[in-house]
Amino acid sequence: MTTEDTRAAEQKKILNRLRRAQGQLTAVIAAVEGGGNCRDVVTQLAAVSSALDKAGFVIVSTAMRDCIANPDNENSLTVAELEKLFLTLA
Q1: SS3 70
Q2: Left, alpha or beta for 35 (phi > 0: left; psi -120 to 50: alpha)?
Q3: SS3 78
Q4: Which residues does the chain have with pLDDT short of 50?
Q5: pTM confidence score
Q6: Rounded Cα–Cα distance for residues 56 and 61 (Å)
Q7: Are 61 and 85 within 8 A, CB to CB?
Q8: Which of 43, 54, 61, 67 is 20 to 30 A distant from 11 in Cα terms?
């Protein structure tokens, strides 16, 4: 698998997680608008939050791998920048 194939696969994973979160958020909005059960709304909201967190971690881990593999790339992040991004998700 080439680097481009790996990037495309990672991007697909990220987009799938984000689309899943988008669908879950749409369901949360509909439930709130429809006066849905509090427990169900909060459970669904937690699922949205988890999906977004996982997408964020995949994005940061991909950036880390890219920075290690290509430290001279103009888009490469410093260790401090990567740490700040990671901690933003914590």
Answers
A1: coil
A2: left
A3: coil
A4: none
A5: 0.73
A6: 9
A7: no
A8: 43
